[in-house]
């Protein structure tokens, strides 16, 4: 996020797009609701009628994958009606003229047609966003990035932020809400094929030299390959060894059959995890790791805040903290490290990483986390970015981007658009929420959300067992009739892989720059399954007896043959 | 108790701080502070049974009444709703005020169950309400008990609702309707007949409740508790501050342990998340850690099947295979994938491992999936 979570409560306007905030980031949604209570405008641009629309002044229900024509048309109106911040644009940006010319290709009437919306929605969003700026925040999540044009989608939002002077404005900014507890920290630490810690580019010689000197070892100069590329290279035999730390790739990645096939083709695979996940199950070596409550270290949250994670209990059996396992492996590879504790690891990293340099464990003990950039130990951290760019002369660049339809659009054979996402009470592949008692009462199993009119047309009732097929695979799932889905588009999450491995059907397309998969758009066919699951129908019609506490259940043993592997001493 | 929110900070930055005397102790507070902030900053404490900083002052419980001197006159005001003023003199613990609080507490006790009102070894004995009862020596039975209407029991597996202990402070309905804005619970009836209720049958599972658990965490009496912590004596638990293991908001949590074992979580009210959690952070952030299905030993595939191994066997095998692959095909034929789920320090080490121990930049993480 360019700005801070708490600031959202003070925003003049919040434009939420591609983020089901109340379900995926519930506590951030509290700040949005607070802003609305205080009089801020809330605009939701989303194909689905998500819960947050209840608080919104306007829900603009665009078609899946039509973000760029929408936001280009909004920019068109802002420019043609002279609503943009001319001083900001002149002083802090470059490429405005070309951009202004470019968006003339997206008149509101033209884009409204592509987006499937009323043209007035475009004027409304443009005028309200410009009027509320600076201090109007854009928040987005994977609904923007998980498209084959995801990076261009993000740029189309950045264009709006620059037009109206929202970068460097309190309560403004363009804010990606990060999905996982430490996805920010993993990037900050340099677990990226192109970047060393702190987003320092591996391909720059002075950067490499600094790290080579500190680490006492030469560094490869050429950027590495992403996960998506690596899986293709496994199938071709070019990648033979894989080390996976804490990730259930087989379930979480798109076109899951392909991911599983790729990993099985690798000659030697190591998985370090807390459970015998579907990915660990196909590994050659499985290393038992400590969970978060058994580890010392830090997580960095969505607003760049580094916070301490502390050990409350010991890991089970012989499981060990991730860093201890890795330090052992360093030694066995002939590169012993003279650091031991998480604090020493952190210290080594911060001294090489300007944006983290001033964050120490001592400071984290005293306060409630520090937001980077924090260049020195007297620096309080940075609540919002780009504040001083005007002074430092660092301009923002307008990006003229064009509409790219999803790689796969509905056709005669696969006439329905499937989009995927999250639900509040389930998380990712379900390895954690699937083990929490009582959660089976909130969302008992995967459900395919279908618009009521589509359900009538397709002869489907609540609780029916459906077969969802795409060009890549098929799954069975329970039907949920709800107007949260627009007509012609259905929705699923991927938290119940035992019965419904959603990513068997998702698209194998990905963004051509970031290689982020297009989870949000796949063409599918929906049929009533030959075999109906009576439990799914019953669960949907559960009757609760007042006064009787519902007994908790736990995740059933899905793989009883593995019991010996997981046994205690 | 008051967190420096941007709105507070922005307002106070432009105005001069105020100087007050609380029980003779000088204290400076920001220009928009309340009297309650001043007395807390000065190190004094009054019961605040209806107050949650997230929804702001309500002024209904009247427990925080203090005496302030205004223009030479003494006025008794609720410190939570009254703004501080320059030069104000505040008294918090005069005999009249203490007597007054005692009477109010005895009235509240008359609305709670007699059996539960003497919590000698009761699990609720640590609650805000009973701390106040003890501090002011309020006696149950001093005012005759009132039998209040109670809603039907609620079978949900998360939130235990025991309205025998409810004092109708409305913190739960305020946090539900004004902060979480779920609108799951409301006040039904008036006066001593009022009760906390959820439509239509009082089952939270059938209501818009999101099970964020914030009603539990704001309840001052123990009328609302975490069902998963039922039977755990709060005096026997330890709390370790950490961060929720789910999404990127990074809410502060306290891991609750008893005898070296996880038994639950509570929100960390000092964290930037201000004590807020969602259903996952509140009710799903610890059971998976102690699951029977956790991996407890290294495993090595032998004859096609994963089998238990020692750490030395497993790590030697990893190193031997990686060395062999590097020798035969070079370091770029190995990839390492780090994790958005583990601590930053481990991510740092794995990228360093890939780059100097293997010799490749083939390091990625799950940020794209």
Fold blueprint:
The complex is a heterodimer of chains A (569) and B (369).
Chain A: E1 13-17, H1 21-24, H2 26-37, E2 41-45, E3 58-60, H3 67-80, H4 86-92, E4 93-94, H5 96-102, H6 108-115, H7 119-131, E5 136-140, H8 142-145, H9 150-163, E6 174-176, H10 183-188, E7 195-196, E8 200-201, H11 205-215, H12 227-235, E9 241-245, H13 249-252, H14 256-265, E10 268-273, E11 285-288, E12 297-300, E13 305-309, H15 322-332, H16 342-352, H17 361-366, E14 370-371, H18 389-392, E15 396-397, E16 416-420, E17 447-450, H19 452-458, E18 465-469, E19 474-481, E20 489-492, E21 522-528, H20 534-540, H21 563-566
Parallel strand pairs in A: 1-2, 1-5, 2-3, 4-15, 5-6, 9-10, 10-11, 16-20, 17-19
Antiparallel strand pairs in A: 7-8, 12-13, 13-14, 16-21, 18-19, 18-21
Chain B: H1 6-14, E1 18-22, E2 25-29, H2 35-41, E3 65-70, E4 73-78, E5 89-91, H3 95-109, H4 114-117, H5 128-135, E6 159-161, H6 171-179, E7 186-188, E8 195-197, H7 214-218, E9 224-226, E10 238-243, E11 252-258, E12 261-267, H8 279-283, E13 299-302, E14 305-308, H9 311-329, E15 334-337, H10 344-358, E16 363-364
Parallel strand pairs in B: 1-5, 15-16
Antiparallel strand pairs in B: 1-2, 3-4, 3-5, 6-9, 7-8, 10-11, 11-12, 13-14
């Amino acid at each position: 996020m360019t700005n801070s979570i708490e600031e959202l409560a003070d925003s003049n306007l919040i434009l939420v797009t591609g983020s089901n905030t109340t379900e995926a980031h519930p506590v951030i949604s509290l700040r949005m609701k607070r802003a609305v209570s205080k009089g801020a405008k809330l605009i939701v641009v989303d194909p689905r009628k998500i819960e947050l629309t209840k608080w919104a002044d306007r829900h603009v229900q665009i078609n899946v994958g039509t973000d760029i024509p929408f936001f280009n048309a909004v920019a068109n109106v802002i420019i043609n009606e002279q609503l943009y911040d001319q001083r900001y644009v002149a002083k802090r940006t470059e490429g405005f003229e070309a951009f202004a010319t470019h968006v003339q290709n997206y008149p509101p009437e033209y884009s409204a047609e592509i987006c499937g919306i009323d043209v007035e929605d475009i004027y409304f969003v443009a005028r309200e966003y410009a009027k509320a700026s600076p201090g109007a925040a854009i928040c987005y999540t994977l609904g923007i990035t998980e498209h084959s044009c995801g990076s261009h989608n993000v740029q189309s939002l950045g264009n709006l932020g620059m037009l109206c002077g929202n970068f460097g404005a309190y309560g403004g900014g363009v804010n990606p809400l990060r999905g996982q507890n430490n996805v920010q920290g993993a990037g900050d630490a340099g677990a990226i094929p192109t970047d060393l810690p702190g987003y320092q580019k591996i391909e720059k010689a002075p950067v490499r030299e600094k790290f080579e000197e500190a680490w006492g070892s030469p560094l490869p100069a050429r950027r590495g390959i992403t996960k998506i590329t690596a899986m293709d290279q496994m199938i071709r035999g070019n990648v033979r060894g894989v080390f996976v730390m804490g990730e259930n790739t087989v379930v979480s990645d798109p076109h899951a059959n392909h991911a599983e096939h790729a990993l099985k083709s690798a000659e030697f695979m190591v998985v370090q995890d807390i459970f015998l996940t579907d990915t660990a199950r196909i590994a050659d070596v499985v290393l038992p790791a400590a969970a978060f409550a058994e580890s010392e270290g830090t997580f960095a949250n969505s607003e760049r805040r580094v916070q301490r994670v502390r050990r409350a209990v010991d890991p089970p059996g012989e499981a060990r903290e991730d860093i201890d396992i890795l330090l052992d492996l360093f030694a066995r590879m002939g590169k012993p490290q003279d650091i031991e504790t998480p604090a020493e690891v952190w210290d080594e990293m911060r001294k090489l990483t300007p944006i983290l340099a001033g964050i120490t464990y001592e400071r984290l003990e005293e306060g409630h986390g520090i937001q980077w950039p924090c260049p020195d130990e007297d620096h309080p951290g940075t609540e919002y970015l780009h504040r001083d760019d005007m002074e430092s002369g660092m301009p923002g660049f307008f990006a003229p981007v064009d509409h790219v339809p999803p790689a796969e659009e509905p056709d005669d054979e696969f006439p329905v658009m499937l989009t995927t996402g999250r639900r509040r009470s389930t998380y990712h592949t379900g390895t954690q929420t699937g083990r929490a008692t009582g959660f089976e009462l909130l969302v008992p199993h995967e459900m395919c959300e279908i618009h009521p009119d589509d359900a009538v047309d397709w002869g489907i009732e609540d609780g029916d067992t459906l077969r969802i097929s795409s060009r890549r695979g098929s799954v069975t799932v329970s039907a949920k009739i709800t107007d949260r889905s627009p007509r012609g588009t259905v929705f699923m999450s991927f938290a119940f892989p035992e019965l419904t491995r959603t990513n068997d059907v998702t698209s194998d397309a990905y963004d051509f720059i970031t290689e982020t998969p297009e989870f949000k758009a796949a063409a599918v066919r929906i049929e009533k399954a030959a075999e109906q699951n009576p439990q799914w129908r019953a669960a949907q019609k559960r009757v609760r007896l007042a006064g009787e506490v519902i007994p908790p259940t736990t995740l059933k043993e899905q793989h009883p043959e593995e019991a010996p592997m997981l046994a205690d001493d | 108790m008051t967190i420096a929110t941007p709105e507070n900070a922005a307002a106070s930055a432009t105005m001069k701080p105020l100087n007050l005397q609380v029980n003779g102790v000088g204290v400076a507070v920001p220009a928009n502070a309340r009297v309650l902030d001043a007395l807390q900053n000065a190190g004094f404490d009054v019961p605040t049974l209806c107050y949650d900083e997230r929804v702001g002052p309500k002024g209904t419980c009247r427990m925080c009444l203090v005496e302030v001197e205004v223009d030479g006159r003494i006025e008794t005001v609720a410190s939570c709703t009254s703004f501080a003023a320059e030069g104000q003199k505040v008294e918090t613990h005069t005999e009249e005020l203490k007597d007054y609080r005692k009477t109010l507490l005895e009235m509240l006790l008359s609305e709670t169950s007699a059996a539960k009102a003497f919590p000698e070894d009761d699990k609720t004995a640590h609650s805000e309400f009973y701390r106040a009862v003890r501090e002011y020596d309020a006696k149950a039975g001093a005012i005759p008990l009132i039998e209040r209407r109670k809603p039907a029991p609620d079978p949900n597996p998360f939130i235990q609702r025991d309205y025998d202990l409810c004092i109708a402070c409305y913190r739960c309905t305020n946090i539900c309707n004004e902060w979480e804005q779920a609108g799951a619970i409301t006040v039904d009836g008036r006066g001593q007949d009022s009760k906390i209720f959820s439509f239509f049958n009082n089952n939270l599972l059938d209501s818009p409740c999101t099970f964020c658990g914030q009603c539990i965490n704001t309840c001052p009496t123990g009328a609302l508790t975490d069902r998963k912590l039922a039977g755990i004596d709060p005096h026997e638990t330890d709390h370790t501050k950490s961060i929720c293991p789910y999404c990127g908001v990074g809410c502060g949590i306290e891991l609750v342990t008893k005898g070296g074992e996880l038994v639950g979580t509570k929100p960390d009210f000092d964290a930037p998340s201000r004590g807020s959690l969602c259903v996952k952070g509140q009710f799903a952030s610890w059971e998976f850690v102690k699951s029977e299905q956790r991996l407890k030993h290294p495993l090595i595939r032998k004859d096609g099947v994963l089998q238990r191994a020692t750490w030395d066997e497993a790590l030697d095998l990893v190193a031997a295979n990686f060395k062999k692959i590097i020798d035969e095909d070079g370091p770029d034929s190995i990839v390492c994938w780090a994790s958005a789920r583990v601590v930053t320090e481990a991510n740092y080490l794995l990228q360093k491992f890939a780059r100097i121990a293997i010799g490749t930049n083939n390091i990625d993480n799950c940020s794209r999936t």
